[in-house]
């Protein structure tokens, strides 16, 4: 609840406030299932919106859509308001934009392969370090040639092209293993089978659309429908990390602000770090550490602070801890870790209270004006001012259709990119290969003709040389009209046969030679 230029988050023995100038120091909301984490998220999101700060949040269970509708009183809620002594509490609706990767429950959300980049894409494809190295080469070759990688068919075409020309690229870019090319292709097919092709394309999401305010100066609450998306944990976590990276890359440095430019809620945060390589954890740590200078606050929501790596956890300084149920040894360890994260209150033992918290109750510690964590307070979280449950489908579709963003993302664009360019390149290469093949065949035909001519000439020469002097004499006698015997000798038959086999230019040549001899006589 936005009150007196600060967020009234909870009330216990004392009021608990979150100062807007400290909101970009990030935060953590933890607790077991059903203890009130979602309500806390809603109260914070509404308060930021009232403060003029746009919000992004992921709707995991499908129950956050009611933020666009004014809340209503009920006996249970009235009891909560009475216990908190909230006399100035008002129900209200909030400016809301709905988004959905699958384009069903909100404006479609897409990014391009190039914007995702090889590091996040490698995680999405679950590639090994060696395979990631090859994917880096694929991206580098595409960049060097000016070939746009927009959707999955672009990347598949690019990977196939690089694999087919691996030897040509090896000198300049390094070794490109055939096995790695095959593994990347298989991973791309698996991603496509899971519906990943819906995510990549154009028009890509313009993150400036998540920084909008309404006419009254209230920040828009941007809700990403994730009921279906979270069933693909790797796609869900990679997408949210991409958004966080894009905010970091594109927003200017702001320094210390009176309030954030935007607040980003990352629900089911454990999915981001599950089986994540060290390089990815380091990237998240770097982004969380530096993005506050861009005026962005990041709030992770998970069941236990043990789900968050220590290097990231140390950056989350506004903390809300709901109840944890410690039955197993691992759960007891998680309670001990959570208790140590707070500055002790001398009035109670934090470790014991964590097990006793009621639904909607929490241990809260936020930063004071000097950036120092306040003593932990046991307090009841305020109720949200918007509708508690989800809206119906008709209301959702009405909200989507009247949005100023409607029509910007609904129709997919497929412009010329790497897929089309590579097709043209391959066609040209095939034409050149066909021309080269024809030239080779023609060269072979000419060589064969030359060999055939030489063989015939040698045969004719050999046949002429086999004519003995006696045979030549017989031919000469016949030409001079001398009387021949009635029967031809075997030698004469051979001569006649030899003469009859000599045809064409070779026969003429011999004839001219013989008659030349006679003429000279």
Question: What would your notes on this structure say?
Answer:
The protein has 18 helices and 13 strands. Strands 1, 2, 3, 4, 5, 6, 7, 8, 9, 10, 11, 12 and 13 form a 13-stranded mixed beta sheet that branches. 38% of the residues are buried. Residues 502-507 and 509-521 have low confidence and may be disordered. The chain is α/β, with parallel strands linked by helices and 521 residues long. The chain has helices at 37-50, 75-84, 113-124, 129-145, 152-164, 166-173, 178-193, 233-250, 270-273, 278-290, 310-313, 329-340, 350-356, 393-401, 418-465, 469-480, 490-501, 504-520; strands at 2-3, 6-12, 15-18, 27-30, 55-59, 96-100, 107-108, 221-225, 262-266, 296-302, 318-321, 361-365, 377-381. Helix 5 (152-164) runs parallel beside helix 15 and helix 12 (329-340) crosses helix 13 (350-356).
Using DSSP, what is the number of strands?
Answer: 13
Number of helices: 18
Distance between the termini: 135 Å
Write down the overall geometry: elongated
Helix fraction?
A: 40-55%
State mean pLDDT (0 to 100 scale).
86
Largest sheet: 13 strands, mixed
Rounded to the nearest angstrom, the radius of gyration is: 42 Å
**Strand content bin:** 5-15%
Oligomer, anyone? Answer: single chain
Uncertain residue ranges: 502-507, 509-521
